[in-house]
Amino acid sequence: MENNARDIINEGSKLIFNNINCDVFTFNMVSSEKDNTVIPNGLYVDRGYEGFIRAYSAAAALSSEIHVKYIESPLKQAVQVIPECYDEVWTAAKGSYKLQKQGVMADGGEIILYGPHISCFHSDKKIEEEIKEAGYHCKDYIKYYIEKHPEFCRNSAAHLINVSGPGEYNSVKNIERRKFRVTLATGIPEDICEKVNLGYRNPDTLKKSDFAGKEKIWIEDGGKYLYELKK
Questions:
Q1: Boundaries of domain holding 111
Q2: Phi/psi zone of residue 111: left (φ > 0), alpha (ψ -120 to 50 degrees), beta?
Q3: Same domain, 122 and 191
């Protein structure tokens, strides 16, 4: 809840509430799924801007209990099994996002995005080429890259950073250190993975039983849940 994106939404909402001459109500529903059925877990209704904050804060608190998976210790390897509805790395990337809360991945760990059905980074050819041109890197590297290539699409830049996760880049020595590796086990060839600074695994070689040990996890329906380290 406390992040830059949420702050922008709040400020925009404040403008709306302050310029409508009537009562405005906000509805926040929290739901879960079981056996392809949507289960309502909570409905929070309030009035005005302050009510807007109260309602979504209460909904977020319940969501943190339902939609967040808590783990005991950092992971050295995590496999996200990407559903077929995500048919490009651009959308499958949520498998990486959802494991990036502080402490979830161990230093030097590996996130594997497993989706044999995926054969491209983006269905839009221009974005596909941008991704191949710059590659996946940490924020410091991409910021430096944009300084050298100011015309580079900021949406593509954000994607490259978000997939790669935290890291550091020394532009003088041209050395990048990322907290963890991101590996594709998809239909994208090994040479292309290497070109964009991602790891490669043959999807045919992955077995669920190989990721059942301590500090490892195999996640079905990958990208659905956020993971956090239990406090």
A1: 70-229
A2: beta
A3: yes
